[in-house]
Amino acid sequence: MALADATAFPYGLRVLVVDDDPTWLKILEKMLRKCSYQGWNLCFPLSTNCSVFTVMSIDGETSRVMKGVQHGACDYLLKPVRMKELRNIWQHVYRKKMHEVKEIEGNDSCDDLQMFRNGCEGLEERGLFMRADSDTMRKRKDVDKDHTDQDSSDGATVKKARVVWSVDLHQKFVNAVNQIGFDKVGPKKILDLMNVPGLTRENVASHLQKYRLYLSRLQKQNEERILGAARQDFGHKGTSDNLNLRSSFQEQSGNGTTGFQHGSQKIQAQSNMLDPHLEDTKIVVPLKVPDKNGTSVSDVIDPQNVTSASPLGGVLSFDRMPVNQDRKPSETMILECQSWSGSVPPKQFMQYPKHNRERCDLLGDYSCLPKPDLEHPITPSHLYAPPQLVSMSCSMEGDARDFSDVKPDVLGCMKSLSPALMCTVVDSVSAQLSDSVVTSTNSDQKFSSVEGLSSAKDCHIDQARNQAPLLTSEDANIICGTDLACLPDDLSGYQLQGIGWNSIDLFQCNDVMMLNGLQNNWYDDPELSSEIMEFPLLDGCLFA
DNA sequence: TTGCAAATAT
DNA sequence: CATATTTGCA
């Protein structure tokens, strides 16, 4: 495999590159161009009689370039190659040339030789060339102390590989951001907190840049969705008998008095959430929902540092959520979490790097998941039957009737959200259930039609108020809703659907949630769920 | 040090 | 070709 040959020519160096990647060649050429000095061009096309830049394509070896030739042994450089590497190449040239010089001793008048010497000196001045004689070497090493470790070893100084932001790394990053507080974050602080060897401030800064971009993008989506939902909310009450409330929402043009009221109030709430003053201080806040013992589920975020709302939507997970009392408690629920607006990008997952592929396994090959389809709800036939739709809408208006037979279920639903509940502050406020209309979309099912629900406070997620100064339960006269699909037993699944922050925000994680449903139940293990859920779901959307 | 945006890499 | 990452700069 005579792949390469660094040969000293009278006026330059010949480099054989074992790579036909045009981009790569361009880079190399550029670098070589920089090396040119006093006619000692290293690369064509700067000079016709100097360097020869030959490209060879070698199977499976498309990312390497010859650094030089040492007695027939080939050293390779991984790209990208830096100046230092070229300097090494030059040393080979120099040695070889010197060897030739000795052979033709006494012929100092040779023009070529003189040019060569001049060229070497010139390159040396520019730090591109290191003379091979010991004195100069010693001097160099003193000067380039920071390079000696690389240069002295095998000479294969390879540029530091680009950082791959794996899930783990990103998780650390988000942890750091959350701990610092979004208003105070800086690349350096994050870097310090992350404590990852090799990671530079620039790396973090870059990632932070991307992260912010992502957040703002997400917020825009949220915004659109909320506006859309607010519009669709008009007159929704009249459609309670619609088999598919979701589609009916889409088609509604917005009339009806009560619906209007809801809609307007939602808009108001939204303006709160999108308060420009909050814009820059958004933070991902895993809602700390106490479990039955009152202990906090999340141990990642210091609540003292939680300063504001997150533009990210809430991510709710459901485990064995009882939709009706006939349902066996062991039934696994799948949160369908579709977007009713249909505007949500079907994929909001991190695009895992190829070389990090194993991480993908954790989440499964989401690319294979069916895209949520409004017309055809996600129904992988081998997993569960098509969910039937149950629409539920709630409001605070009207009398709070006694639906004690229903409330436990609803509350159960809400409580079941807790273990892995990721919610923004504002989102949490919306977790209200009130006077409602629940309509079974399939009359022959066991699901009992629910005429109403308890008061808003009853269904309020306990801590929501504490963390949501922006809205009171009175302000947020919001209909809560979730979009559910259940695994069937003898029946098919159900969907609970409604309007409100939760439902809106749920939708933006449609695929995520579905994925979780399709995967084995991560939430079976509370610890697992609180840990795993927190980031892969929420931040897995980062690289949408 | 930071945040941005252009350049570059994948 | 679209994104992701790096680099250069104010």
Automatic annotation (TrEMBL):
Keyword Plastid set for record: no
InterPro entries hit by this protein: ARR-like, CheY-like_superfamily, Homeodomain-like_sf, Myb_dom, Myb_dom_plants, Response_reg_B-typ_pln, SANT/Myb, Sig_transdc_resp-reg_receiver
Domain Response regulatory: 1-94
Positions bearing 4-aspartylphosphate: 19
UniProt entry keywords in alphabetical sequence: Activator, DNA-binding, Nucleus, Phosphoprotein, Transcription, Transcription regulation, Two-component regulatory system
Polar residues bias locations: 240-269
Domain HTH myb-type: 157-216
Listed GO CC annotations: nucleus
Region (Disordered): 233-269
The name this protein goes by in its record: Two-component response regulator
